[in-house]
């Protein structure tokens, strides 16, 4: 991989309204607050998305913490130190414990810049072997069963290849059974608990076994690897870990323990797309299917996810829906459904353009952090 010399990083916190509220077992969102990082290098620029949320509810990271870690720890480790191979970013910031989503954003921005410098697409660089990826949609907890049916019907009419519904105690077996009965056995259907249960709920969760689900995602807490392994012995539905899988090492542990039969790969959660590829490789070597998770990404992260999901081990549809699933207006051209699939971008780097005007309209906070000697280049390219 080409080395790049960063002249500075631009950081922006965006707030983009959602087309409809999105509710999970841990809370409800009406807008997406997200950080975009722009790396300006000697020969190009690149974008990365930091998928933290405003509150540490999905994982321990959150926007304010990410902002702080970027400015006080990550940028200083990467600026003014000469050329950097993007493959070495993770090693350079390894001494900073955790903060994987934040690290992933910076690594992606530098990868995008480096790939622009060598005119290669992210998909080609990662080893993608497909031009399109099947598109699944994640359906939040709904105010009523009727609302759930109408929403799922609408997504199926749009052509989505797979439905995932969010579950929590009190909204689990009944809505799932209703979907199976209404839409039939051919519907690719899965559920995501976002860690809302404990092992003592095994008997309840066993009621899902009759419903022909592809998987149940993260039923128990993030650090419950051993309990997930115990639960797996009591369920027929395959367990798919999301929150628990924070690295390739943990992925290997979880597979060995029998805690996960499928893996949801999210680059932010694991510290970057390069680590995500390592998880893909570990899982593939064990015959464990993987799919690409989503964090309500803007077009920047969605482009990167589409590239990742085009790798050969991604054998299940991902949470890579069309941009209009969440946003009336994105900061890039929207990703659209094409017969239930999303096209993998082919242009250099991430293959998407960030619209400067649109970006400005949704930015609520921004900064420019120059490398020593580049203080003057404050607003290069925007
Ligand atoms: O980007 O389509 C998307 C969202 C998919 O459900 C989704 N993500 O646990 O998998 C998950 C959740 C995490 C975000 S919930 C606010
Ligand atoms: Mg999940």
Task: Note the topology.
Blueprint: E1 6-24, E2 27-41, E3 45-50, H1 63-78, H2 89-92, H3 100-118, H4 122-126, E4 132-134, E5 136-139, H5 145-158, E6 162-166, H6 173-183, E7 189-192, H7 202-206, E8 216-217, H8 225-232, E9 239-241, H9 248-257, E10 262-265, H10 267-270, H11 273-285, E11 290-292, H12 299-309, E12 341-343, H13 356-362, E13 363-370
Bound molecules: N-succinyl methionine (SMG) and magnesium ion.
Largest sheet: 7 strands, parallel
Quaternary structure classification? single chain
Order of helices and strands: EEEHHHHEEHEHEHEHEHEHHEHEHE
Share of helical residues: 25-40%
Strand order of the largest sheet: 5-6-7-8-9-10-11
Strand-residue fraction?
A: 15-25%
- What are the distinct ligands in this entry? N-succinyl methionine, magnesium ion
CA(first)-CA(last) distance: 26 Å
> Which structural class should the secondary elements be placed in?
alpha/beta
Average pLDDT, to the nearest integer?
96
Our count of helices gives: 13
Total beta strand runs: 13
Q: Tell the overall outline.
A: globular
Could you describe the 3D structure shown?
It is a single chain. With 382 residues, the chain is an alpha/beta fold. It contains 13 helices and 13 strands. The strands form three sheets. It has a seven-stranded parallel sheet. The chain has a four-stranded antiparallel sheet with strand order 3-2-1-13. Strand 2 and strand 3 form a beta hairpin. Helix 1 packs across helix 3 and helix 5 packs across helix 6. The chain is globular, with a radius of gyration of 20 Å. The mean pLDDT is 96. Magnesium ion (MG) binds next to loops.
């Amino acid at each position: 991989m080409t080395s790049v010399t960063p002249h500075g990083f631009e950081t922006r916190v965006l707030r983009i309204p959602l087309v409809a509220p999105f509710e999970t077992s841990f809370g409800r969102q009406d807008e997406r607050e997200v950080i975009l990082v722009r790396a300006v290098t000697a020969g190009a620029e690149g974008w990365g998305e930091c998928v933290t949320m405003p509150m540490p509810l999905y994982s321990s990271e959150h926007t304010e913490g990410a902002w702080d870690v970027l400015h006080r720890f990550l940028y200083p480790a990467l600026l003014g130190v000469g050329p950097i191979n993007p493959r070495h970013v993770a090693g350079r910031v390894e001494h900073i414990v955790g903060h994987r989503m934040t690290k992933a954003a910076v690594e992606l921005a530098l990868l995008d810049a480096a790939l622009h410098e060598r005119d290669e697409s992210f998909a080609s660089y990662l080893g993608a072997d497909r031009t399109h990826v099947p598109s699944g949609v994640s359906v939040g907890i709904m105010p009523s069963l009727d609302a759930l049916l109408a929403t799922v019907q609408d997504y199926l009419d749009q052509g989505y290849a797979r439905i995932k519904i969010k579950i929590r105690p009190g909204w689990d077996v009944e809505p799932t059974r209703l979907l199976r009965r209404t839409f039939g056995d051919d519907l690719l259907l899965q559920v995501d608990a976002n860690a809302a249960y404990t092992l003592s709920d095994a008997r309840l969760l066993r009621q899902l076994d009759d419903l022909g689900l592809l998987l149940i995602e993260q039923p128990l807490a993030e650090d419950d690897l051993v309990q997930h392994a115990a639960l797996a012995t009591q369920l027929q539905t395959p367990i798919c870990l999301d929150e628990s899988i924070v690295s390739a090492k943990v992925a290997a542990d979880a597979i060995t323990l029998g805690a996960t039969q499928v893996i949801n790969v999210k680059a932010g959660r694991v510290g970057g797309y390069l680590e995500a590829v390592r998880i893909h490789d570990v899982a593939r070597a064990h015959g464990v299917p993987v799919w690409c998770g989503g964090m309500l990404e803007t077009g920047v992260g969605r482009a990167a996810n589409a590239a990742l999901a085009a790798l050969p081990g991604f054998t299940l549809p991902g949470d890579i829906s069309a941009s209009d699933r969440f946003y009336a207006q994105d900061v890039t051209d929207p990703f659209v459904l094409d017969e239930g699939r999303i096209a993998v971008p082919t242009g250099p780097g991430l293959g998407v353009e960030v619209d400067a005007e649109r970006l400005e309209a949704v930015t609520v906070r921004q900064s420019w952090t120059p490398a020593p000697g580049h203080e003057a280049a404050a607003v290069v390219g925007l």
